[in-house]
Amino acid sequence: MSTLLTLDTARSNDGKLVLIAAGEIDLSNIDTFTRALTMAIEETAGSDGKLTVDLGTVKYLDSAAINVLFAHAEQIQLIVHPFLIRIFTITGLTELTSVEPASPNGS
Fold first, then answer.
1. Suppose 61 and one of 12, 19, 65, 85 were both cysteines; which one would form an S-S bond, judging by CB atoms 3.0 to 4.6 Å apart?
2. Number of other CB atoms surrounding residue 94 within 10 Å
3. What is the pLDDT of residues 34-51, one digit of tens each?
């Protein structure tokens, strides 16, 4: 059974593309997440700056999701649920890309 994951894109106040994920990211939906991430990165290619990936409402992700984020670390910056900051620090992802906590009232 697939884990619930919704993906959307939006524009930040400065007009840059943001990929927004909600739900859980695990092996059951990693292909969908990877496709959406790759497409969003391609859409931002040539722009000044990295793609923002908003994981502010994601409270669970497995190693498959972490691996995908590592593979694209040079092209992304992350906004994550405060609960996940420690995971990104322990794995070393914070050394490769910007990882910021989401605001308490949502990202």
1. 65
2. 18
3. 999 999 999 998 877 899
